[in-house]
Design goal:
The protein is of the alpha/beta class. It has 16 helices and 14 strands. The structure holds pyridoxal-5'-phosphate. The site of pyridoxal-5'-phosphate (PLP) has 15 residues, from α4 and α5.
């Protein structure tokens, strides 16, 4: 890699999308109408949209050119074969099962591998992943290292699985009562924290010794590979593609959202090596997604994803991506804003408890912070705390995660340095007014994945 400034864009801009600049009064009304839930805002009322990096990325000219080459045949589209080749080149699994997005793949894997009552350990839950595991009758159990729950811990691989916790689950529940273990790389809800190669290798050894399958949530595997390259001894000279291959080689299969690493707006896939596992997923993909050669995607979308996959595992592209997160992180950190440390891959996470110590978690601390940031500066972020964590399916009690955060997620290739300056200025202004703020009460609560549609009132 060259020593070129990593913040300098490795692309230039060919097309622009105008955004609306609004007043604080306008945003206060919009927030009220949205029930103080940033998911319910209209996107046109948002100035800088850092809700998610999912499907919000800018495609390259090469990807747009691919859109024009969609083979929309119902069966055997040539774009499917391009996607299969790209997946094998980047990850190395034998079988590809395309899906409309990541959660489609999660449903296929959960249905194939979980018998009701079985346990599914994982390195911190992810919302849709856990939902599908529970719908298939499984019970999620968190086996991430303790450091992941501590926003101030500076360990380089806070996404790691705690091998002792995993071993304890095996001993207590018995290996046959464990459906599989999921390793998320990077760990979204822990702040985009990576998992080391050493940890993936050791988890794989322990799991396989006990006859337990390992499933990778490969949604941000290329970002994880970048962190392994720069933080783990022995990988500096390896390419992201080589590192991805090694990570995947320790696992039995993967689910992947195509809306993140690949700069695409839609798509996903499941992948595996075992023929029977693939057959099972293919028999379900035709019921829930679409034929096994399109899985809910148009041919053109598969082409854009195939091209995006090959582009994204470029070292310079990934270094720029992470540099944008680090730039915003540094601006906020210098101003004393409490952040999840160290900076992760796909965004900056603010520790809402430390930002608003006067607002208890039961009054939705992070939800309120996400709302206030929108009211102050028109920037949309996402709650990743008690609202996202939902309720225990058995007891009905709210899960109370240790991390009560908001996520400022960086879409790939979309915003510039001055946008990040505006975000930081707005949040710093709010931080000065933090003592004035009170919490929220929930006035509408959906049963599943409540954070998407819940509504609130100000206390
Ligand atoms: C986005 C995401 C998913 C789900 O993928 P969708 O494409 O949104 O269905 C799964 N796991 C992780 C870590 C994600 O970030």
């Amino acid at each position: 890699m060259s020593t070129f400034n990593p913040m300098a864009e490795p692309y230039k801009i060919k097309m622009v999308e105008p955004v609306k600049i609004t007043t604080r009064e306008f945003r206060q009304n919009a927030a009220k109408e949205a029930g103080y839930n940033t998911f319910l805002l209209r996107s046109e009322d948002v100035y800088i949209d850092l809700l998610t990096d999912s499907g919000t990325n800018a495609m390259s000219e090469n990807q747009w050119a691919g859109i024009m080459l969609g083979d929309e045949a119902y069966a055997g589209s040539k774009n499917y074969y391009h996607l299969e080749d790209a997946m094998k080149e980047c990850y190395g699994y034998k079988h590809l099962v395309p899906t409309h997005q990541g959660r489609g793949a999660e449903q296929l894997v959960s249905k194939a591998l979980i018998s009701p009552g079985q346990w599914v350990p994982g390195n911190m839950y992810f919302t849709t992943t856990r939902e599908h595991q529970e719908l298939a009758g499984g019970q999620f159990v968190d086996v991430i290292v303790d450091a992941a729950h501590d926003p101030l811990d500076e360990s380089p691989f806070k996404g790691n699985v705690d091998l002792n916790k995993f071993e304890k689950v095996i001993k207590e529940q018995g290996a046959k009562n464990i459906a599989y273990i999921t390793i998320g790389v990077t760990v979204n809800l822990a702040g985009g924290q990576p998992v080391s190669m050493q940890n993936i290798r050791e988890v794989s050894e322990l799991a396989h010794k006990n006859g337990i399958k390992v499933i990778l949530d490969a949604t941000r595997a290329m970002e994880n590979a970048y962190f392994i390259k720069v933080r783990e001894k022995g990988y500096a000279a390896k390419s992201i593609k080589e590192i991805c291959h090694e990570m995947c080689g320790y696992t039995d299969g993967a689910t992947c959202s195509g809306k993140k690493d690949f700069h695409t707006n839609i798509g996903g896939f499941a992948a595996c090596n075992d023929d029977d596992f693939a057959t099972h997923m293919r028999s379900n993909v035709v019921v829930y997604e679409g034929l096994q050669t399109y899985g809910g995607m148009a041919g053109r979308d598969m082409e854009a994803m195939a091209r995006g996959m090959l582009e994204a595992c470029d070292d310079v592209c990934m270094r720029h991506r992470v540099a944008q997160s680090e730039y915003l992180w540094n601006l906020l950190d210098k101003a004393g804003i409490p952040l999840v440390r160290p900076c992760g891959g796909h965004g900056v996470f603010i520790d809402a408890r430390a930002f608003y110590p006067q607002i208890p978690q039961e009054q939705y601390t992070a939800q309120k912070l996400a709302n206030d940031i929108y009211e102050y500066c028109g920037v949309r972020s996402m709650e990743r705390g008690i609202v996202s964590a939902g309720r225990d399916k058995v007891t009905g009690h709210e899960h109370k995660p240790k991390l009560e955060t908001i996520r400022l997620t960086i879409p790939r290739r979309v915003y510039t340095q001055s946008h990040f300056d505006v975000v930081a200025e707005g949040i710093i202004e709010l931080y000065k007014d933090r003592d004035k703020m009170k919490g929220l009460k929930m006035v509408y609560e959906p049963k599943a994945l409540r954070f998407f549609q819940a509504r609130f009132e100000k206390l």
